[in-house]
Write a structure and sequence with these properties.
The complex is a heterodimer. By secondary structure, chain A is α+β, with helices and mostly antiparallel strands. Chain A contains two helices and three strands, in the order E-H-E-H-E. The interface between A and B is medium-sized, with 13 and 20 residues.
Chain lengths: 83, 236
């Protein structure tokens, strides 16, 4: 199954990249844009016996390596079919 | 005493630390490859600066799972001295040996400059040869050196006197303009609660020789050497 993982900076953590992107969008005339936060997107192909089994393994991977709980939050989506 | 300098793929200040310890400080030092287990007796392990594993995912995130890190964690648990410089600091934070994290510099730019550091605490193996409030000059060179910790952690760091170095101006003030990377509370270096693990973004190894513009980095290495000599004396 395909797993899509979204990692983002926690709300209190400074995001200078997001700020720079926001300024750039404003320069381009998109003045309606606010609060740009930049994150990471990971796509994994995972073999698992069930949706639940995959879920607990993915959570483990996120806690251990893919996200740093000090500065980042994560969420993921599991797609049981093929891409 | 014996120093070990750990070499990760992508370390680039390992040789600087090695040469400084050996030539400038006259110390016994050995390189340790990240894939090996930690074997042999060491008094202080240094995790050097660089870009371990290309800084992929997050700085230090992959290096913390290198085989040698199991030994480093155990070494620290037993009271061994561990010094993380720049990328080494990032690895120590990622591995949970130090609190907080290092994120992208607030100004987004890679900073490469001499900075002034104020010694905040001297009751540690890493700063005991310095005077409280003393200013040290050393270079920084990093893109992700902005120290971050949540407010509860910051409070704990202050209460336990774990903030050992702050970025300051020539008058010794921890002002915003003296802060090269936007670090919380101008923090340049912190230690763990048991005071045997220390991480800092500036490079003391590049400030131990007049040719490099400063010899102030010696304070850090000589503090460690003095501490280890005292430990050996106690055990003798």
């Amino acid at each position: 199954m395909v797993v899509k993982i979204f990692v983002s900076l926690k709300s209190g953590v400074l995001d200078p990249q997001g700020k720079a992107i926001e300024r750039s969008l404003h320069t381009l005339g998109y003045s309606e844009v606010q609060d740009v936060r930049m994150g990471k997107y990971l796509e994994l192909n995972v073999e698992a016996s069930s949706h639940e089994a995959a879920e607990s393994r993915i959570r483990e991977m996120c806690e251990k390596l893919l996200a740093n709980p000090v500065i980042e939050d994560y969420r993921f989506e599991i797609e049981d079919g093929t891409l | 005493m014996r120093w070990g300098v750990i070499v990760f793929p992508g370390s680039c200040d390992d040789q600087d630390v090695f040469d400084t310890l050996k030539r400038d400080m006259g110390q016994k030092v050995k390189f340790l490859w990240h894939k090996d287990d930690l074997v042999g007796h060491f008094d202080c392990l240094v995790l050097p600066g660089g870009f371990s594993y290309g800084d992929y995912l997050r700085c230090g995130a992959v290096a913390r799972f290198s085989p040698i890190m199991r030994g480093v964690v155990e070494f620290a648990r037993q009271g061994g001295l561990v010094l993380g410089i720049c990328n080494g600091f990032q690895i120590l934070c990622e591995s949970g040996l130090l609190p907080g994290a290092l994120v992208r510099n607030a100004g987004l730019q890679f900073v490469c400059q001499q900075v002034l550091l104020r010694v905040e605490e001297t009751d540690t193996p890493f700063t005991c040869e310095a005077k409280k409030g003393q200013l040290l000059k050393a270079p920084v060179k990093h893109g992700e050196g902005c120290y971050y910790a949540d407010s509860a952690t910051l409070e704990r760091l202050r209460k336990n006197h774990q903030i050992l170095l702050r970025y300051v101006d020539a008058k010794g003030r921890a002002s915003p303009s003296a802060n090269p990377n936007g670090s919380l509370d101008n923090i340049a270096g912190v230690c763990n609660e048991t005071r045997n693990v220390f991480g800092l973004m500036p490079h003391p190894e590049d400030a131990c020789n007049k040719l490099l513009g400063s010899e102030d980095g010696r304070k850090i290495f000589s503090s460690i050497a003095v501490t280890c000599a005292q430990r050996e004396h106690r055990h003798a």
